[in-house]
Write a structure and sequence with these properties.
heterodimer, A: 301 residues, alpha+beta, four-stranded mixed sheet, three-stranded antiparallel sheet, 30% helix, 17% strand, B: 214 residues, mainly alpha, two-stranded antiparallel sheet, 63% helix
């Protein structure tokens, strides 16, 4: 079957094992965004639009550099510009390229009720398959990063694909290709973790003693990682969550509760049926009718 | 008060229509809801015309169910008030199941089990209605914080579970007690049926000028 991917690790709303015959080790990939090298040029945003054929509505200038102001079904990545006054009283411009983090344990995939509408490839990329999307928006509630966006036009949900189509043919994602400062790199996750560690050491020698890698373990690590100057407080970067994890409400909702509930409902139905078998129906007999008749006559005497 | 046939009126025409419309809306809402409840039931989306139609229609099926439920149930609040005899009846539930009607306290138009169903369904419906709006992605989700949406998804599924389990119980008892389903089509019950299952109501109905049981 040359046209299907055999490299699926997880598939939404699927209780069986995805095809698992291939045994070759597929390396996990990642995108590393080094916020300390970002100049906020938005080349990545443009490259994303170009490659994916997206054109967002022309908006209005809200007085800040963020443009468009938020992710949308037509803007799968946006630069977020935070002005941070550090304890020394200096201004720091903390710019972060926002978009899907490609969680190793994706909340969107866990929440999705439509089989195969969200898949996770063996390399770690989380991809929406819009032809299977039913537009319920459960993925939006499942996401700990507030990333998926539903389109008003077709009621399907969209987000960054990590250019899975490019990666599949050995190319790096479009944003990586376009980045002029080398802030965004793409490759094997273990290699990028190594590169990030070296960069963090370098940053520490330059006075950023809280520099570090953002690869949050609450979601099993992510396949989009950040190097941050202030890894101790990611929220400085336009609200990047400090310890993201799938909400306990979502875990409970999608956990053991539903199979148990199905079992309980089947049990009630079975109990009702077996009760009929056991004692037969509760029938009104001629004796009851006679007793009723006597009561009636008594009443009308 | 009795019909020319000697039978006792139990369900008015309006009640019967509302009851069966409620049943239809319930099946539509439950089929389209169960489709999203668990992957093993996703095939039910076919009944609504596929996944996207299922997601689109389910909230409207739910609203139809709400309309018929509250229209049907709210006017019945008075005949569902719980009394002392009801508590005793519940304590002797084993006698109910073993056809020991003679040792049970006499029951009103609705027995204690039916009254409990009334309150359980009332709570479930209110819960489903309130949690339904935050998770209605196309129109309302955007107005609620994401944690409210998440909690609503969980509560909605739980309330649906309690509702469906209760309705399965309701249907089982309706099949078990012969004459019940017939009365929901025909509107009347035989005097013997009323005497056997709802004696207090029966006495009220045969009293000259009686019939205030609705």
């Amino acid at each position: 079957m040359p046209l299907q991917s055999l490299d699926i690790r997880r598939r939404s709303a699927t209780t069986i094992q995805p095809p698992a015959a291939r045994v070759e080790a597929i390396p996990e990939v990642a995108k590393l965004i080094d916020t300390t090298k970002c100049i906020g040029c938005k080349a990545c945003q443009v490259a994303c639009m170009e490659w994916n054929d997206l054109r967002d509505e022309i908006g209005i200038n809200a007085g800040v550099y963020d443009n468009p102001p938020d992710l949308s079904s037509q803007s799968w990545t946006v630069m977020r510009y935070a002005e941070y006054e550090n304890p020394k009283g200096d201004l720091e411009w903390l710019i972060r390229k926002d978009g899907c983090m490609h969680c190793d344990d994706p909340g969107c995939l866990k929440a999705c009720p439509s089989p195969g509408a969200i898949v996770q490839y063996a390399n770690g990329i989380v991809d929406f398959q819009e032809e299977n999307c039913i537009g319920c928006g459960y993925c939006i509630s499942g996401c700990p990063f507030d990333v998926p966006r539903i389109s008003k036009k077709d009621k399907k949900v969209y987000k960054c694909t990590l250019c899975s189509d490019r990666v599949a043919v050995g190319l790096e994602p479009a944003c990586v290709k376009a980045c002029p400062t080398g802030c965004i790199t793409f490759g094997r996750k273990d290699q990028l973790q190594h590169d990030a560690a070296e960069r963090v050491v370098e940053l520490k020698t330059r006075g950023f003693d809280q520099a570090g890698l953002y690869d949050p373990q609450g979601v099993g690590g992510t396949h989009v990682m950040y190097v941050l100057h202030h890894a101790d407080d990611p929220t400085l970067y336009s609200g990047l969550p400090k310890e993201p994890k799938i909400s306990p409400f979502v875990r409970l909702w999608k956990g053991a509760v539903k199979p148990l509930a199905l079992g309980a409902m089947a049990f009630v139905a079975l109990a009702g049926f077996l009760n009929m078998v056991r004692g037969g129906a509760s029938e009104t007999t001629a004796k009851d009718e006679e007793a009723a008749q006597r009561e009636k006559e008594k009443m009308h005497v | 008060m009795s019909e020319p046939s000697g039978e006792i009126p139990r369900h008015s025409v309006l009640d019967r229509i509302l009851h069966w419309m409620l049943v239809l809306a319930f099946f539509a809402a439950v089929a389209s809801g169960f489709a999203l409840f668990h992957p093993s039931l996703f095939f039910l989306t076919a009944l609504s015309g596929g996944g996207p139609w299922n997601a689109l229609l389910h909230p409207f099926f739910g609203l139809a169910m709400m309309l018929f439920f509250f229209w049907f149930a709210i006017p019945h609040w008075r005949v569902n008030l719980i009394g002392k005899r009801d508590i005793q009846w519940l304590k002797q539930f084993i006698d109910v199941m073993t056809h020991n009607e003679e040792v049970l306290p006499e029951q009103d138009k609705y027995n204690a089990g039916q009254k409990m169903l009334y309150y359980i369904l009332m709570l479930c419906m209110i819960g489903l209605l309130l949690t339904g709006f935050p998770i209605w992605r196309h129109y309302f989700s955007g107005y609620f914080p994401v944690d409210i949406v998440r909690l609503s998804l969980l509560t909605h599924a739980f309330a649906a579970f309690v509702l469906v389990a209760s309705v399965i119980g309701h249907a089982s008892f309706a099949v078990w007690v012969k004459g019940s389903i017939r009365s929901m089509f025909k509107g009347t019950v035989t005097p013997g049926w009323a005497y056997k299952h709802h004696r207090a109501w029966f006495r009220q109905m045969i009293r000259p000028g009686g019939g205030g049981g609705h």
